[in-house]
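Form P-L/3: holo structure prediction, ligand calcium ion.
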Amino acid sequence: MYLEYNIGGSTQTDDYPNNPPSNFDIYAGNTRSGVINYGGDEDVIRFTPTVSGTYSFYTSSSIDTYGYLYNSSYSVIAQNDDGGGSLQFKTIIN
Ligand SMILES: [Ca+2]
Ligand SMILES: [Ca+2]
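OUTPUT (holo model):
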């Protein structure tokens, strides 16, 4: 699965590529820091579940975030705007 989140910003480099496949992984129980480097930047991070269960994905920031969760075929399986409160993206899937 791929988690994509998109927040506003204004520079030119990018710490994560905008489109899958991403070489950057996140693991259950861990966090990743990212920077929205320019307006329209979308940071894409790969997550590969190792066990069946319920997973929550969310951002924690001082700006407004929006997130998409894709399956391995790059189809959107979840998306959210403010589910985490304070304009933060959050989605929970089984
Ligand atoms: Ca970025
Ligand atoms: Ca939001």
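COMMENT: Residues 64-66, 81-82, 87, 89 surround calcium ion (ligand 2) (CB under 6 Å).
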